[in-house]
Write the structure tokens for this entry.
Amino acid sequence: MHYQYVVILKKNSEKATDALSFFLCLLSSISFLYYAVGSERSSSWFLYTTAAILLVGLTINFIARRAGRTHVRYRYLLLVAALGWMASPFLPWLCILLILLAFLEYQTKRPLEIGFDNDRVVINSLIRRRYDWSAFSNIILRDGLLTMDFKDNRLFQKEVVDEEDEDDADEDEFNDYCRARLEESSSR
């Protein structure tokens, strides 16, 4: 759907998500190596390979993070770790948890967008939420802070991403648009 305005909000959870993902992949690779060294089973070669892939991937991500890359992804490493847990004879149910965390890692790093259209406001999160303009008493964007005041006394307030695009709308223009939509919905 095409929206009149799209506001992209800042994400503050990337560092915590990266730290958890790094720790889980490192712990998985250590567990695979520990089991493969102490085992003479035929699956130990797979655990060695999985641990090596995880350690190489973690090293590459660590170097990329130190080099200043801000968008480091762990979802594929989490999926490799899930395969390792699936093949391991101990705690194979952890593969389900790691697959879920790989999906959630993608969701936590995806920018949160709010679309403003003539008939509704859509918050594009894990579960898309749609609101009619009549659900709000006020919506305002000031100094990089979006405030959405619901009529049921809920308040949504987040910082917006500061992008220097020429096609970005002016705050006053956005606020006038929201004010007009709110006045139109209250007159119905």
The chain has a mean pLDDT of 86. Residues 14-109 form one domain. The radius of gyration is 23 Å.
